[in-house]
Design brief:
Blueprint: H1 5-8, H2 14-17, E1 26-30, H3 37-49, E2 54-56, H4 74-87, E3 90-94, E4 109-112, H5 120-127, E5 132-136, H6 143-155, E6 161-165, H7 181-190, E7 195-197, H8 199-203, H9 206-218, E8 223-227, H10 245-255
Parallel strand pairs: 1-2, 1-8, 2-3, 3-4, 4-5, 5-6, 6-7, 7-8
This protein binds phosphoenolpyruvate and manganese (II) ion.
Phosphoenolpyruvate binds next to loops.
Length: about 260
């Protein structure tokens, strides 16, 4: 294993710093991408009614094909700001390049996506900020490489870091990725740094999200991040894996 001294002695109360009570799970729900005010408003209203305080929603989207929807960019951030003021939600959104940082003041938690897990310059720059970061595991990266990437952020002085297991690429084609709950168990056994999972990108299928969300929490994950949509059939990205609001409500009840 590589050395990761800052992970070894990590003891920052990251979740407490976000306002969570003792042992409270970090539950983040929301659309893959910001699409419109009406979409965000319906989802944010649902979250508020169900006492969910964290909403995810991407505006800079790392799409495999350049011909797919790339996100609304800064106009999407303006919509998020309006929704945040209306519902008082905490926001999670992906940063793909450090040049986007000044635009993202209203975002409470910056996500580094799987494809950028080893973008070491981005990690170094984020290490110099005091923003809470969710670092997602690359789909082709080992746990050791994941910890090394985390170390880049910590070394800059930023201790508000949360890891996210989002599935790795295996020989299995029936799920989008393979959720590695062994990773969650290892991190929980050996380290104090929080780790959540993303069963949406791990499975790629609506019906598989809830069982793997529950399995993640059973394995000791500190939370989950899940894609939901007010009308999945017309979602502009990741439609097949989005829970509709009824399924999201069932998930919330089952987590309780
Ligand atoms: C996302 O969460 O929107 C996303 C693109 O996930 P990942 O980086 O894990 O593929
Ligand atoms: Mn997505």
């Amino acid at each position: 294993l590589s050395s990761h001294p800052l992970i070894d002695k990590f003891n920052e109360p990251v979740l407490k710093n976000l306002g969570l009570e003792n042992d409270e799970k970090l539950i983040i729900l929301g659309p893959c991408a910001v699409e419109s005010y009406a979409q965000l408003d319906e989802i944010a209203k649902f979250l508020t009614e169900n006492n969910i305080k964290f909403m995810r929603a991407g505006v800079f989207k790392p799409r495999t094909s350049v011909y797919d929807f790339q996100g609304l960019g800064s106009s999407g951030l303006a919509l998020l700001k309006e929704i945040k003021e209306k519902y008082n939600l905490k926001l999670v959104s992906e940063i793909m390049d450090i040049s986007q940082l000044p635009l993202m003041n209203d975002i409470d938690i910056l996500q580094v996506g799987a494809r950028n897990m080893q973008n070491f310059e981005l990690l170094k720059q984020l290490g110099k900020t005091n923003k809470t970061i969710i670092l997602k595991r690359g789909f082709g990266n080992t746990i050791d490489e994941f910890l090394c990437a985390a170390e880049y952020i910590l070394k800059g002085g930023n201790k508000n870091l949360i890891l996210c297991e989002r599935g790795i690429r295996t020989f299995e084609p029936l799920t989008r990725n393979t959720l590695d709950l062994g990773c969650v168990a290892i991190i929980k056994n050996q380290y104090q740094i929080p780790i959540i999972t993303d069963p949406s990108h791990a499975t790629g299928h609506q019906q598989l999200v809830t069982p793997l969300a529950l399995a993640s929490l059973a394995a000791g994950a500190d939370g989950i991040m899940i894609e939901i949509h007010n009308n999945p059939s017309i979602a502009l990205s990741d439609a097949e894996q989005a829970l509709d609001l009824k399924m999201a409500k069932e998930l919330i009840n089952r987590i309780k």
